[in-house]
Specification:
By secondary structure, this protein is an alpha/beta fold. The protein is built from ten helices and five strands, in the order βααβαβααβααβααα.
Length: 208
């Protein structure tokens, strides 16, 4: 039997408040959402793995671009997960500050170009942002978000990234009896059940 310790693998998650989820108030720096659920999984099945969460609430893709070197590349992660997009839509409606789809794609492409240039064989996981239709105001978000989701899907195909399709995940959950509010009380930030569904979908996509 080999006594050689397995190599440590770093899995990094970067994004907005859904990834952040209180990680800066967490002594472990992991937060209390889907990233913590994944950290618990890896603690059981790959204890040498290191989980790094650099999510920041309120971030848009342009914010990720500005901090990508320090908060992602400098960690030299073996696996990178990017979850961003809903704030690019939300700011259109609550602050009158839209992100045009072409600008969104250009900044998102920059992230993927940097990952490809530094370690072409590194697995990259892209999480599709979602909104649950808790009311008419949130339902309107789709007229903006849908275009950005299509850009993410297109980039995933181009770069060979794995996709966590939260649109499908949430639709499937609704068909099983969930309500929009039980998945995300404000239409955007997941409930405990919502975070569990995201973590499970991430594991499924990663195993594929």
């Amino acid at each position: 039997m080999s006594t050689e310790a397995p190599a440590q693998r770093t899995l990094l998650f970067i994004g907005d408040s859904i990834t952040d989820c209180g990680r800066r108030e967490d002594p472990e720096g992991i937060g209390f959402g889907y990233v913590r659920l994944l950290a618990e999984h890896f603690a059981a099945y790959e204890p040498a793995a290191r989980i790094v969460n650099t999510g920041i609430g309120g971030n848009r893709v342009v914010d990720l671009r500005a901090r990508f070197a320090e908060d992602c590349l400098d960690h030299d992660p073996d696996v990178v997960t990017v979850y961003v997009g809903v704030n690019d839509t939300w700011r259109r409606y609550d602050q009158g500050d839209p992100t045009e789809d072409d600008a969104f794609e250009a900044d998102y492409r920059y992230l993927l170009d940097q990952l490809s240039a530094t370690r072409p064989d590194r697995p990259v996981v892209l999480i599709i942002p979602f909104v649950t239709d808790i009311d008419e105001d949130k339902a309107r978000f789709h007229e903006d978000l849908d275009g950005k989701v299509e850009r993410i899907r297109r980039l995933a195909r181009e770069f060979g990234a794995r996709v966590v399709d939260l649109e499908k995940v949430m639709a499937d959950a609704l068909s099983r009896g969930h309500t929009p509010a039980s998945l995300a009380p404000d239409g955007v930030h997941p409930s405990t059940a919502g975070h569990r569904l995201i973590a499970d979908a991430w594991l499924e996509a990663f195993r594929r």
